[in-house]
Amino acid sequence: MVCASNSPAMKRYNNRFIAAMLVYVAFLCPAVWLFSHHPPTGLVAYLIAVLPAIPIVAGLAVAGIYLGEEKDEFQRTIFVQSMLWSIGATLTVTTVWGFLEHFLQVAHLELYLLFPMFWFFVGISSLILKARYR
After folding, report:
1. What is the CB-side half-sphere exposure of residue 24 using CA atoms within 13 A?
2. Of all helices (H) and strands (E), which one includes residue 11?
3. Domain-by-domain residue ranges, the chain?
4. What distance in Å separates the CA atoms of residue 97 and residue 108, rounded to the nearest whole number?
């Protein structure tokens, strides 16, 4: 059984997610530069700091839209299971790291790294699940 999906829903998901991540980079790079060279203050600083989070929220919404559009129940199940395994892995890593931070004063794990960590684990778990069902 082939687990790769070339469905129209998956193609739309990929296009939308890539677009959201391109907007993320387009918002993040100027924000980093601005805070490094000409730090804004007040309300403007808050708005610029939050701006890169908007496409991240959009990326999560894109995943939900995909689940509503995908007609192949098996592909939806693989995606949902991948996300669930990823949530578990992300929570495990962050909990263990939190205790290490607390008791051993290891380097602080920046919260903005949770989003890429989550999607990294989605990718890994998706590969494992697809290999399992071949």
Report:
1. 17
2. helix 8-37
3. 6-71, 72-134
4. 8
Listed in sequence order, the residues at least 6 apart from 40 whose beta carbon sits closer than 8 Å to its beta carbon are: 34, 48
**Can you read off the two tokens belonging to residue 49?**
């700091």
The model's pTM is 0.86
- Tell me how many degrees the CA angle 34-44-23 measures, rounded to the nearest 5: 60
Indicate the length of the chain as a whole number: 134
| Tokens read off for 116 | 């890429």
How far is residue 58's CA from residue 64's CA, in Å, rounded to a whole number? Answer: 10
Using CA atoms, how far apart are residues 107 and 111, in angstroms rounded to an integer? 12
Whether 112 contacts 94, CB under 8 Å: no
pLDDT tens digits for 52-110?
999 999 999 999 999 999 999 999 999 999 999 999 999 999 999 999 999 999 999 99
| Burial 117-126, CB ≥16 within 10 A → b, else e | ebbebbeebb
